[in-house]
Amino acid sequence: MEEHNWHKEAERKWDNFAKQWSQNSSEMWESGSRKKVIPFISSNLQPGDQVCDLGCGDGYGSLLLAKMGFNVTGLDISSEMVETAAKRAAGQTNTTFVQGDLAELPFEENQFDAILAINSLEWTESPREVLSSIQKILKSGGVACFGILGPTAAPRQNYCFRRLYGEKVIMNTMMPWEFEQMALENGWTLLQETAVEKRGVDFDKLGHFSKELKQAVSFMWLFLLKNDKGE
Question: CA-CA distances (angstroms) from residue 99 to 54, 86, 116, 168?
Fold first, then answer.
């Protein structure tokens, strides 16, 4: 590999993965690992809210929100993903899709009422800086839903493990508790949270488990945060 450029490598990776991702997106959002996301965030939105879906992929989740009456702008680093999303959204007047990098968000300050960022912050080189940029484009008091992979989620092994051998990677994985602490130290308030359990895990039987132990058997942990800038 030539000189490592995080963002170019990320764009290449997701362009190459776009077709496979689109083949599975319906299952993920409707009955799989992302089925809880839309109900979780939409219950905290108002009709007509401006929502930005950061790392929107092929736009499936963005369109679910748009069909509920929200105005959605989806951003993804992959031109292949954005092209697929735009085709999927044909005829939907309250959606816009743009290619862009979370490290250089092409939006105005205070542009959005809400942010959706599912498993996207972990693919950035400087998560804290990106979190700060997200805060700028989100209105004060606005909400953001972040999805952070659990400790044993397969993408950690597939895309991050090789860093231990000194190899360059493009996944900046973090524990859910690490993300929460970083957010709380940088102007966010935790409003709600919920688990997306791994296959084979029955959360109904884990009622006595601590939050940390529940995170350990989760595929993903969903956080709903309030932007406290200016307060």
Answer: 10, 11, 16, 24
Q: In 14-154, at which residue ranges do the beta strands (DSSP E only) sit?
A: 50-54, 71-76, 95-99, 112-118, 138-149
Q: What's the mean pLDDT in 181-208?
A: 89
Compute the CA torsion angle 40, 46, 52, 53 (nearest 10 deg): 30
| E-assigned strand segments in the chain | 50-54, 71-76, 95-99, 112-118, 138-149, 188-197, 218-227
Residue identified by tokens 């069909």 is 67
Question: Quick one: tokens of 227?
Answer: 């932007």
pLDDT tens readout for residues 154-177: 888 889 999 999 999 999 989 999
Total domains in the chain come to 1
The residue written with tokens 């960022």 in the block is 117
Tens of pLDDT, residue by residue over 18-70, are 999 999 999 999 999 999 999 999 999 999 999 999 999 999 999 999 999 99
Rounded Cα gap, residues 202 and 209, in angstroms: 12
User: Phi/psi of residue 54, each to 5°?
Assistant: -90, 115
How far is residue 227's CA from residue 220's CA, in Å, rounded to a whole number?
22
Q: Give the β-pairing of 218-227 and 138-149.
A: antiparallel
Decide if 1 is inside a domain: no
Q: Identify whether 145 is part of a domain.
A: yes
Q: Can you give the CATH number for the domain in which 125 is found?
A: 3.40.50.150
Mean pLDDT value across the chain: 93
